[in-house]
């Protein structure tokens, strides 16, 4: 019960027995501790320690079951108190010197439960985040055993109590019966004793003012382990402040809970599930508040002490991994402060007490870290405060101190230029023995650290007090970034060695440098760097590196060799594209400011991600532009100073405070609900598992930035959509999604929302079918109207069946033969959203069709499919040509079968086919007759020896034969395709033979005809080029060889088709379950000639087809151009009385018979070439004549040899007449 006001005021002034120092905002303790007591004094595994206000130290020796007391400065204990307790875990000392001590373990396996062996702890410590759950599970199991056995195996009369040693009478009395060990003890200002019972998962209390020891009251926890706000999981250390608020180290929930006085629900103030991101804890064991109510936590299984402050949490001591060195801890358990703020820690597994001296009650940063609002803006037009005459060429390094003094390194003159922000001219110029410095850093006392690694291999410090330079670090390359952290550790970024190194400036001797980041090998792995430039070290000693060569910013947390990509390439969450970042600064709220060098701009992170601040108008020298900026710094007012090295100047961009709205007060509201088994289900991210979800409609009444954070006992997963959420397509309208950015297992969504727009927040879980309660905390400029859209599942209808050998079969996806199936008719009474899912012992596929399902065409009427993968199953696709089972996807691969397949009706005579089929049949016959006439006339012409005096005649004679073969195979192909589809009784052997052979043979003759025509064009161009020097005999010899070799070359490019072309044949088993269908409906043979290539063969086939199509086309084009323009140029050089244009016209008149043939062939090739080059996939049934027309046109050249070669030539026409005369003479009258 909360005390009344008067009583509270009286007791709030009560003298505290322990120290609560008031520290500065950033206190520092010496990282190297002093061991004030080892195992010989404090025994094995010490846990409990208490330092009172007169600096007397109390420690419980668990090995000897004694209390040790000594003064802080003494070496040996001044008093040793033995008692009837066993391995006590905690103690507390009041102002009058009375000692309250835990009686020890009443639970049989208390020690073994909570303390893993050394090996297991080492393993878990190495990967605390990933193993914490499994560790806690094992711990809980053993605890459960101890609970059940506690009465039989333990002596609760001796151990299950809290004893008080009365200083006045030097005697022990029992003050609380706990039936459990108290892992934490505390006496508040009202003399109420608190006991933290780890195995009972509770904190209990009783008033010491009550004369009788009545039953204890519950202060926190339900007694059942759990992670809900009113539950605890192995609580340990406790602390009660003057407001009677209780803080609990909830160890295996990896968090610190605050239970306000009188409240049963706790608030997570640190660790897993905290409302605001704080720090990751691993089994915290104790907590203390200082005078300003900042938290100090023993992060036990992370082997460190952490503390909160204005800038959040940071590591204080034990920050160098687990170990036994003076700067390391090994499973620390508790801590206490003396009056001076020195820290005393029980280092349990090192069996010692460590004292960490308070080094500085404050460290003053030498640089400015302003706190900006979320809408902060800078004037886009910079002011040049220093040009080349002051800072030299290509200035790199700049630093602004907290008193707004500006320091710039002049690389050209090897000087340090110093001036006040308001002054025009430098107030000081420091010359030194350094060369081309690329970086500098100034500490609070005015000392300047400057790079001198280019030629001298060192870092120098200019001492402000002595006005001299000294070497403080030896390096063998330039330091492109310098930084001195709060512990006086100097960092150097070695761009050319791909490392960041460091050394402590407190070390008297300059020992070898330690590696802070990078392996020394250039690379893009998380532990590697590529040309690191600017660096920044925060108060937590976390290192940020501008990894220029990898286009990213890396964060190396203290003690970690693997970095975390915070921005740029391969960042965990999409951030911003960077190109060679060279500088980085964190503001007061840890938002990143980055110099994006090759993008010539400065960018910043914020609630809504990254955005450009200055230099957002491209590279240039205008006031709004930058050229390869290298570094920057802030003054105390938030103004930005940038080294614009490509423009040889320093630019100042003024901070515009007027753009900051009042962001200090945010509207907060909470939405609470739960996911249950009657919530709707969907497939999140096309996962195979089902997820319960709730959709919440959101409307904002004011445009602005909003934050949505979840909490509860489920591992929540949140997504925000615009307009609507479609559970059938979770990626549609998705704006943002998150799993656990807020804290462990909870989501946090920061997003900009506009008024008058509808948004939908979908809350689900990370694991499938998880249920539980959740709350959403909404922070923003104004209220957000939230309305649940989800409706409960009112009915579930199970359906059971099985597939047997008697079930009908079909070709699923035209790929898997003989798949058994069952069809179900679905009748819907009420329109709405329905979900169907299967639970079975087979690998089931599901498909939903509208109206009807046709097993011969599984893509017809298909609405939705799911086979356990995202977007799987047979979907109607424009990439399918001819039928579902054909895998050509480009126009260049079209065959006549592909084009006409969907148009042909099976079991239908030609007269009843579509107009397109009948017209195509007539056109094919006409083309055959025309081609036959053309070939006969051409053969008669070119068989004359007068026409074979040069290679052209031989090419054309052969072409007249191949054209006849081509047009014959064309009509054969057409009628084979038509008859095989309209007559399903055609012999399968005939169909297989035709499928495998007709198309390759047709292509052979077609390609051969095209290349022969190209050879004619080439020879005619050579004839024009050589003129009288043209060798006719050599021309004939070459022609005979080409005609002999060319067919074999073409066959070589087509031979693969014989292996990949096959007949797809399918005759479904009758569907006896559907009595409405007759045998005529259900028994049909389905055949299709298909070509199935692997991706590699498909690429090869496409290249071959393109070569045979574009090759002759290109040759005809360039030959025609050369015949006209090449000949005209030759003549214009010899006959200068006419200009070039007149020669071209004359050339055309003289040789039009030579030009007509390549031009006509060129024109006829264009339609099919255009179709071949169409991007993406095609669907022939949508535009039949778009594809059928060019296909027919591609055969016209085989019909026109006579017209384009013989008719325009007087020589060939004369030869034709003579041939007819000879034929008439031979023919008897």
From TrEMBL:
<feature type="repeat" description="NHL">
    <location>
        <begin position="223"/>
        <end position="262"/>
    </location>
</feature>
<feature type="transmembrane region" description="Helical">
    <location>
        <begin position="1103"/>
        <end position="1125"/>
    </location>
</feature>
<dbReference type="InterPro" id="IPR011042">
    <property type="entry name" value="6-blade_b-propeller_TolB-like"/>
</dbReference>
<keyword id="KW-0472">Membrane</keyword>
<keyword id="KW-0677">Repeat</keyword>
<dbReference type="InterPro" id="IPR050952">
    <property type="entry name" value="TRIM-NHL_E3_ligases"/>
</dbReference>
<feature type="transmembrane region" description="Helical">
    <location>
        <begin position="954"/>
        <end position="978"/>
    </location>
</feature>
<dbReference type="InterPro" id="IPR001258">
    <property type="entry name" value="NHL_repeat"/>
</dbReference>
<feature type="transmembrane region" description="Helical">
    <location>
        <begin position="919"/>
        <end position="942"/>
    </location>
</feature>
<feature type="transmembrane region" description="Helical">
    <location>
        <begin position="1042"/>
        <end position="1060"/>
    </location>
</feature>
<dbReference type="Pfam" id="PF01436">
    <property type="entry name" value="NHL"/>
</dbReference>
<feature type="region of interest" description="Disordered">
    <location>
        <begin position="111"/>
        <end position="156"/>
    </location>
</feature>
<keyword id="KW-1133">Transmembrane helix</keyword>
<dbReference type="GO" id="GO:0008270">
    <property type="term" value="F:zinc ion binding"/>
</dbReference>
<feature type="transmembrane region" description="Helical">
    <location>
        <begin position="1154"/>
        <end position="1174"/>
    </location>
</feature>
<dbReference type="GO" id="GO:0016020">
    <property type="term" value="C:membrane"/>
</dbReference>
<feature type="domain" description="G-protein coupled receptors family 1 profile">
    <location>
        <begin position="933"/>
        <end position="1205"/>
    </location>
</feature>
<feature type="transmembrane region" description="Helical">
    <location>
        <begin position="1186"/>
        <end position="1207"/>
    </location>
</feature>
<dbReference type="InterPro" id="IPR017452">
    <property type="entry name" value="GPCR_Rhodpsn_7TM"/>
</dbReference>
<protein>
    <recommendedName>
        <fullName>G-protein coupled receptors family 1 profile domain-containing protein</fullName>
    </recommendedName>
</protein>
<keyword id="KW-0812">Transmembrane</keyword>
């Amino acid at each position: 019960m909360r005390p009344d006001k008067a009583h509270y005021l009286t007791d709030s002034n009560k003298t505290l027995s322990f120290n609560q120092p008031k520290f500065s905002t950033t206190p520092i303790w010496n990282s190297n501790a002093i061991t004030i007591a080892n195992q010989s004094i404090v025994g094995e595994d010490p846990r409990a320690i208490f330092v009172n206000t007169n600096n007397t130290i109390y420690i419980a020796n668990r090995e000897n079951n004694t209390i040790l007391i000594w003064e802080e400065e003494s070496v040996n204990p001044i008093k040793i108190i033995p008692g009837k307790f066993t391995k006590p875990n905690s103690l507390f000392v009041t102002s009058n010197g009375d000692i309250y001590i835990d009686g020890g373990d009443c639970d049989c396996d208390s020690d073994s439960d909570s303390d893993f062996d050394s090996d297991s702890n080492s393993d878990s410590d190495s990967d605390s985040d990933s193993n914490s759950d499994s560790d806690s599970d094992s711990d809980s199991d053993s605890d459960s055993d101890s609970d059940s056995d506690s009465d039989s195996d333990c002596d609760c009369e001796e151990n299950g109590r809290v004893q008080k040693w009365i200083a006045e009478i030097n005697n022990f009395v029992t003050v609380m019966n706990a039936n459990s060990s108290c892992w934490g003890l505390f006496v508040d200002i009202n003399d109420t004793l608190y006991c933290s019972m780890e195995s009972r998962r509770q904190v209990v209390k009783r008033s010491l003012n009550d004369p009788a020891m009545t039953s204890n009251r519950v202060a926190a926890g339900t007694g059942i382990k759990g992670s809900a706000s009113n539950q605890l999981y192995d609580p340990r250390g406790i602390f009660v402040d003057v407001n009677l608020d209780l803080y609990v180290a909830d160890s295996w929930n990896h968090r610190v809970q605050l239970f306000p006085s009188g409240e049963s629900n706790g608030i997570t103030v640190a660790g897993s599930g905290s409302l605001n991101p704080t720090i990751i804890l691993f089994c915290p064991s104790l907590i203390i508040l200082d005078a300003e109510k900042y938290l100090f936590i023993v992060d036990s299984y992370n082997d460190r002490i952490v503390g909160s402050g204005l800038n959040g949490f940071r590591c204080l001591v034990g920050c160098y991994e687990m170990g036994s060195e003076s700067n390391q801890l090994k499973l620390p358990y508790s801590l206490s402060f003396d009056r001076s703020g020195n820290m005393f820690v029980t280092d349990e597994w090192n069996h010692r007490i460590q004292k960490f001296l308070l080094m500085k009650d404050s460290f003053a940063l030498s640089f400015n870290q302003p706190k900006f609002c979320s809408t902060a803006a800078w004037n886009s037009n910079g002011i040049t405060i220093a040009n080349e005459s002051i800072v030299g060429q290509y200035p790199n390094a700049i630093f602004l101190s907290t008193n707004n003094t500006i320091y710039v390194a002049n690389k050209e003159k090897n000087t340090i230029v110093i001036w006040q922000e308001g002054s025009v001219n430098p107030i000081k110029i420091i010359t030194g023995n350094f060369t081309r410095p690329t970086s500098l850093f100034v500490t609070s006392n005015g000392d300047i650290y400057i790079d001198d690694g280019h030629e001298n291999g060192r870092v120098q410090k200019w001492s402000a007090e002595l006005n001299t330079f000294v070497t403080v670090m030896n390096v063998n390359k330039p330091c492109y970034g310098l930084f001195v952290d709060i512990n006086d550790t100097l960092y150097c970024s070695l761009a050319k060695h791909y490392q960041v190194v460091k050394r402590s400036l407190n070390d008297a001797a300059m020992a070898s440098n330690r590696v802070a980041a990078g392996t020394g090998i250039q690379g893009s792995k998380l532990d590697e760097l590529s040309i690191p430039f600017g660096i920044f070290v925060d108060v937590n000693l976390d290192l940020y590196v501008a990894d220029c060569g990898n286009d990213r910013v890396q964060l190396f947390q203290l003690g970690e060799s693997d970095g975390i990509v915070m921005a740029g390439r391969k960042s965990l969450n999409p951030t911003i594209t960077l190109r060679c970042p060279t500088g980085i600064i964190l503001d007061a709220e840890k938002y990143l400011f980055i110099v994006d060098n090759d993008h010539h701009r400065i960018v910043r992170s914020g609630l809504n991600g990254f955005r450009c601040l200055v230099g957002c108008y491209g590279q240039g020298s205008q006031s709004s532009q930058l050229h390869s900026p290298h570094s920057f710094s802030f003054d105390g007012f938030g103004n930005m100073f940038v080294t614009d090295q490509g423009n040889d100047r320093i630019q100042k961009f003024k901070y515009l405070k007027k753009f900051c709205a009042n962001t200090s007060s945010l509207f907060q509201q909470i939405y609470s609900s739960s996911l249950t088994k009657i919530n709707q289900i969907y497939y999140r991210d096309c996962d195979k598992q089902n997820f319960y979800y709730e959709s919440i409609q959101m409307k904002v009444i004011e445009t602005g930035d909003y934050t949505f954070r979840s909490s509860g006992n489920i591992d929540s997963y949140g997504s925000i959509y615009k307009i609507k959420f479609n559970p059938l397509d979770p990626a549609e309208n998705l704006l943002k999604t998150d799993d656990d950015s807020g804290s462990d297992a909870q989501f946090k969504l920061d997003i900009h929302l506009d008024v008058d727009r509808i948004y939908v927040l979908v809350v689900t879980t990370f694991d499938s079918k998880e249920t539980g309660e959740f709350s959403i905390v909404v922070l923003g400029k104004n209220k957000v109207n939230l309305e649940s859209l989800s409706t409960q599942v009112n009915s579930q209808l199970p359906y059971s069946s099985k597939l047997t050998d008697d079930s009908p079969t079909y070709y699923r996806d035209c790929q898997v033969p003989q798949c058994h199936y069952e069809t179900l008719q679905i009748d819907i009474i009420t329109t709405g959203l329905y979900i169907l899912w299967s639970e079975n012992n087979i690998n089931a596929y599901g498909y939903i069709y509208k109206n009807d399902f046709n097993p011969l065409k599984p893509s017809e009427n298909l609405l939705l499919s799911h086979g356990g993968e995202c977007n799987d199953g047979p979907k109607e696709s424009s990439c399918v040509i001819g039928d579902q089972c054909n895998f050509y996807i480009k126009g260049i691969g079209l065959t006549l079968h592909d084009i006409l397949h969907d148009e042909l009706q099976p079991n239908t005579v030609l007269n009843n086919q579509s107009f397109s089929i009948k017209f195509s049949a007539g056109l094919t016959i006409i083309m055959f007759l025309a081609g036959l006439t053309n070939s006969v006339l051409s053969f008669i012409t070119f068989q004359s020896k007068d026409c074979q005096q040069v290679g052209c005649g031989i090419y054309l004679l052969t072409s007249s034969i191949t054209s006849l073969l081509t047009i014959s195979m064309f009509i054969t192909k057409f009628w084979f395709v038509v008859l095989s589809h309209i007559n399903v009784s055609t012999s399968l052997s005939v169909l297989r033979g035709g499928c495998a052979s007709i198309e390759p043979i047709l292509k052979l003759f077609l390609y051969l005809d095209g290349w022969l025509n190209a050879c004619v064009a080439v020879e005619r161009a050579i004839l024009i080029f050589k003129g009288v020097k043209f060798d006719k005999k050599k021309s004939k010899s070459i022609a005979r060889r080409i005609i002999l070799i060319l067919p074999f070359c073409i066959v070589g490019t087509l031979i693969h088709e014989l292996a990949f072309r096959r007949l797809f044949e399918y005759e479904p088993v009758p569907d006896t379950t559907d009595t409405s269908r007759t045998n005529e409906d259900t028994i049909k043979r389905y055949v299709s000639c298909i070509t199935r290539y692997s991706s590699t063969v498909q690429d090869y086939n496409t290249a071959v087809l393109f070569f045979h199509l574009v090759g002759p086309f290109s040759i005809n084009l360039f030959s025609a151009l050369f015949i006209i323009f090449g000949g005209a140029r030759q003549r214009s050089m010899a006959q200068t009385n006419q200009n070039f244009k007149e020669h071209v016209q004359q050339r055309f008149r003289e040789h039009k018979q030579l030009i007509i043939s390549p031009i006509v062939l060129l024109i006829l090739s264009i339609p099919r070439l255009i179709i071949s080059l169409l991007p993406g996939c095609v669907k022939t049934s949508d535009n039949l004549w778009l594809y059928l027309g060019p296909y027919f046109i591609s055969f016209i050249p085989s019909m026109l040899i006579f017209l384009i070669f013989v008719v325009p030539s007087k020589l060939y026409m004369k030869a034709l007449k003579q041939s007819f005369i000879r034929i008439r003479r031979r023919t008897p009258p």
